[in-house]
Amino acid sequence: MEKKQVSDYMTHDVISVNAADTVGSVINLIKTTHHDGFPVLKSGIVTGYVSARDIIGEHPDTKVEQRMSRYPITARPDLTITEVARRIFRTGIQKLPVVTPDNKLLGIISNMDVIRSQIERVTPEKVFNFMKALRTLYAVDTNLKREMVKVEDLQPTQSVIYQDELEGRTYELQKHLAEPVIAVKSGKRVILVDGHHRAVAAHKLGLEKLDAYVVYLDSDIELGLEKTAHSMHIYKLADVRIDKSGEHSLVKPTHPSLIATEKKYVRECMSTDLITIQASKTVKDVIHLIRTTNHDGFPVMLDGRVVGIIGARDIIGAKAADIIATLMEPLLLKAKPDDGITDVARKMFRFCVQKLPVVDDNGAIVGIVTNADVIRSQIERVTPEKVFDYMTTLRTLYGIDPQLSRGMVNVKQLIPTQSKIYMDELDGRSYEISKGLAEPLIVVRRKGRLILIDGHHRAVAANRMHVAELDAYIIDINLETEIGIEKTARNSRLWTLDDVMILDDSKCNILG
After folding, report:
1. Most buried in the list 221, 380, 443, 478, measured by CB within 10 Å?
2. pLDDT per residue over 284-301, tens digit each?
């Protein structure tokens, strides 16, 4: 279900400190490297982690081992990105040292790496909504296949792409991590609809083929987006212009009326319980806030407007009486409540920021969105792989042709196939259901039985909240006998969602 691993995204060139080093040396490292924390080694073994927050207000001669966080949460290189996202979100930790089984340092993976892994993901909505749009606009039947397409055959429908985005997609292609593009096969033409950065990157790398979701049409028609592209003299990937200005902050969808790429908004994920600080306050005031609130950064206000962000890293080495207006990071980026959460992810990754103030149309601050909010929005996402890989498994094992649809399912009728879930994850899914943000379940429907394949936390949360129906991808199969996962559930005495065990101690699942 998950092909992306820590080893694919972690940073190998890690700066570490020794347990016997002083706080003063760490302060110098923070100022020269602009990192806000480092793994701590003792005899070559990871024994702790020290951050700017750990050492604010400490004497420079204090030893690191006196202030470091001991027994840090770590990651193994074969851990999936999804699981590391859960660890980061649940613990609030921004960086995890990546270690061998004997705790030797291999690298580090941060919340920014997790965010990068989520940008420009192909969601079922992108594929299915586009197919629905084609049927509505052109009255054609469509058929979806996952296959490799020739890069030279792709006809682009977007006139410009951006250099920084292109670099990211190039990296992912080289690491074999790139999401499939979406294309339409009309007659002999292969029309590129989504994934222009990936396609141009593949073309520049000299790749012959690219993974794609291909929507086949039952008739040869010229699409409106083809006509638009041709009117701009765009016929092949080499005709797509690369914008190197670096001034943009977002990549807009090519065909927003046809492909719905974003349903989660900043207003649904942001924190509205704000703690701010006035620009006239001192370093001493910031230290007090950090120690009493457990936050490590705050919006800075002047005359009722947010003008910057102040955090632990900004005040390292400063005097207690220093005014924060001279130390804060000036506010260059912000978000609006109606911004898409994926667009915010792009901003955070490209500009390496941890928090963005959210302002209304009048510039007044109404909330704050953090990288943890972005990560939470990505956990337990439904990917095309989850749906299509399971359908392929059913075809292979039982020789049947599963049929896929999207619809609502009765929560009480769901038959679980997972015996345990975790309370902290359940809390997160309950929040998303209450906000209308929950991803669809994946359900197999056989002989009227609704067999839950993916989304047990969501389903149990809905059951506890007395929600009658949930959105689902429904895989219908025509099979008289039980499938294997049904037998396993029956043998485990799983009949209803009430039979699923809820583990209160989430640490047993996430701590390395």
Report:
1. 443
2. 999 999 888 878 889 999
